[in-house]
Design goal:
Elements (H helix, E strand, L loop, with lengths): L13 H7 L8 E5 L2 E10 L2 E10 L7 H13 L8 E7 L2 E7 L4 E2 L11 H19 L6 E4 L8 E3 L5 E3 L6 E4 L7 E2 L11 H6 L1 E2 L1 H17 L4 E4 L2 E5 L1 H9 L17 H14 L10 H14 L4 E3 L2 E3 L2 E7 L2 E7 L4 H5 L11 E3 L1
Antiparallel strand pairs: 1-2, 2-3, 3-5, 4-5, 6-8, 7-10, 8-9, 11-12, 13-14, 15-16, 15-19, 17-18
Length: about 350
């Protein structure tokens, strides 16, 4: 394959991979999936030692040259702060290894039901992932549109600052970006529960297929759970239809993660849930573009009040009113510091004790 020479600058030797992973030490494994295993390790660079992730593709699980080189080509050409970065690759004998930037917090699916992940953090993660997908769908510097085909919370990684990074491009498809609508006929692939039903039924792939999958992720963020239920490793239920019905019947309170609504401004919830619902509409023409989704998520973020700080701690979440000098203001406070901040039942506060974050 002559095109491989175009990527020689990214290639590293197997001895470097083996050294970084301590010969694929099981204690270095940080993830597993349908592709194989992911190891954490360190490589030398011009800036010193850097921590990276090594994805070892397992041919026994159906991973082959096509998926491997597709990932290399996609991530070497498409660069964005909300796409995972490909650092290197290694291909020797039967080994195929991709080397990525290390997203130390892992994948989003691990945090869906984490009550410490705030509503504002969730909004920012969604906004970042949406920006990454918008870049793929409407790139400015290339004539190619990328359709991911496997958007799910497990494929959205998080770095130290909780920045969202869209990952796993092995199933992606390329189409022309100079058309209002790009339709590709392909064998339906992806993850049950996240796939556009029309794509699964007819095999017609479009950017609206990715939009549907992203809408499922938005509902997962809101509900604090995966969209699928398993029993004894068997898929038993897909929740998207139920979530859609709850929105239509104005019963969002039935599905929102307990404790999350208290953190939300009503306007923020309204705009977020509306765009999530539009994404999972049955009719593709009724779904928003990724550009529209980014705009709506930014609006939802703006609906949230600024976070305040009190004696060095973040003040957030439930709205309470306190008298400050000559006026009233809304204070959001964290239950874990409630006693310290309220000083028992006293509600008189000095305005100077608070500052905008």
């Amino acid at each position: 394959m002559s095109f491989m020479k175009d990527f020689d600058h990214l290639k590293i030797q197997m001895q470097d991979v083996a050294s970084a992973t301590n010969n694929f030490d099981p204690t270095k494994v940080i993830g597993r999936g349908g592709f194989g295993k992911v190891y954490k390790g360190e490589l030398s660079s011009s800036e010193g030692q850097i921590t990276v992730a090594f994805k070892q593709l397992d041919r026994r699980l159906g991973q082959g040259n096509i998926e491997f080189w597709k990932e290399v080509m996609m991530l070497s050409e498409y660069k964005h702060e909300n796409l995972i970065s490909l650092m290197h690759f290694c291909i020797e004998g039967d080994e195929m290894i991709l080397v990525y930037e290390y997203a130390c917090r892992g994948s989003l699916d691990r945090y869906l039901n984490d009550s410490t992940l705030t509503w504002i953090q969730r909004l920012k993660i969604c906004d970042g992932a949406a920006r990454g997908l918008h870049f793929l769908h409407d790139p400015k510097d290339t004539q190619q549109r990328i359709l991911h085909r496997d958007i799910k919370s497990a494929n959205i990684l998080l770095d130290e600052k909780w920045t969202a990074k869209v990952s796993d491009f092995g199933l992606s498809k390329v189409g022309p970006a100079n058309q209002a609508h790009t339709y590709l006929v392909s064998h339906a692939v992806g993850t049950p529960g996240y796939c556009d039903p029309l794509y699964m039924e007819l095999g017609f792939l479009s950017k609206e297929s990715d939009v549907y999958s992203f809408g499922v992720v938005l509902f997962e963020i809101l509900c604090g759970r995966l969209c699928i239920e398993y029993h004894k490793h068997e898929l038993t239920k897909i929740l998207v239809r139920e979530w859609r019905r709850c929105y239509e019947e104005k019963r969002l309170d039935d599905i929102i993660l307990p404790g999350l609504k208290e953190q939300m401004d009503p306007g923020s919830l309204k705009s977020f849930s509306a765009v999530a619902y539009r994404c999972v509409k049955k009719a593709r023409e009724e779904r928003p573009t990724m550009a529209e989704i980014v705009k709506e998520l930014e609006f939802s973020l703006k609906q949230q009040p600024p976070i305040l700080e009190y004696v060095g701690h973040p003040v957030s979440y439930q709205r309470k009113h306190y008298r400050c000098s000559m006026n009233w203001f809304s204070l959001y406070y964290d239950y874990t510091h409630k006693t310290e901040w309220e000083y028992g039942n006293k509600k008189e506060k000095q305005f100077g004790q608070f500052r905008r974050k």
